[in-house]
Design brief:
Layout: H1 2-15, E1 19-23, E2 26-30, H2 32-41, H3 45-74, H4 80-89, H5 95-109, E3 114-117, H6 121-137, H7 140-147, E4 164-166, E5 171-173, E6 177-178, E7 184-185, H8 197-220, E8 224-228, E9 231-235, H9 237-247, H10 250-280, H11 286-299, H12 305-316, E10 323-327, H13 330-347, H14 351-355
Antiparallel strand pairs: 1-2, 1-3, 4-5, 6-7, 8-9, 8-10
Helix pairs in contact: 1-3, 1-6, 2-3, 2-12, 3-4, 5-12, 8-10, 8-13, 9-10, 10-11, 10-13
Pfam families: PqiA (PF04403)
Main location: membrane
Transmembrane segments: 44-69, 81-107, 119-136, 205-228, 248-275, 295-318, 330-348
Amino acid sequence: MIALSILILMPFALNYPLLSIELLGVKIDASVWGGVWKMATQGYPYTAFLVFICAVFMPISFALLVIFLRISQLLEIKPRNLLIAITYIKPWVMFDVYLVALGVTVFKVREYASLHIDSYLIAFVFTALLTTLLFIKLNPKELWNDFYPNNNPLTEIPQDNQPHFCTECQYTFTNALEDRKHNLICPRCHSKLHTSADIRLQRTWATLLAGIVMIFPANLLPMSVIYVNGAPTSDTLMSGVLSFINMGSYFIAFIVFTASIFVPISKILIMLYLLSCVHFKLRHSVKWQMRLLHFVHFVGRWSMLDLFVLALMMSLVARGQIIDFSVGPAAFYFGIAVFLTMVSTSQFDSRLIWKIYDYK
């Protein structure tokens, strides 16, 4: 019912105006889809695609998958691929982040023009709240157990047949299946078992190093350029924070600084620390190390805040007016850095930390 309510509200939340400004007596509306479309058609298609994935495609897909799971349950179908998909899609649904981006946009635009809140914002707020509620209600591990119940749970570890553990569906079992290449696979989700630690570390390092490379132009190049009466004013990530401080919006400056600067850099530093612990067998505190890993998993998605603000600004401030807004070259690098670091944290296997303490 929650997923169905989200789909009903989606057209109003995505396509209808959420904010509007008046410039020279002309009303200009801002919507989620309008921001993505303007960004794509005015020379920034790759940045628009990143916003589209997190703000439009993933939320709709997430709600549809939940409905398909319910239909599968009624028809007594085993939806193996749907369960795998919903596990991967869940971290990329960022309606709550977009809601905060709306608040930041309000403070950013109000110094240039009078701003009005449209009634369709209520639909967007309810959609964001329902999506968060669906996050709370939906537990992928419980869904796997509902569709694929474990009728023979392990009560003790057999000596002659060591059990296997599948990281995809959190299933523990003794008898694994084989695929066509004679690789061991999980009998429940058919995922490949026993991927070597070296391969997992290579995936984590590759995406993390690529994200580190992207974070430099993301912080040094302009994130946005605003033309007021033909005079350009470019803002980097840090100068954008300073502009909010100069306006007296200290709380908004704190939010932007945390999401755009502190979170991406701290996430990279934490991942470098955890990878160093794995490689050099550093035994500091396993409880502390696991808390750091949970932290980067939780906060990583909030770095998309800046891109959502840019999309809303593109929708509000059209070209050819007294106020002209343009996305800076740093936006694409910043979005790619966020994506790569999120992939890096998802590839990191927490069992590698626990294995540090197996060595004598």
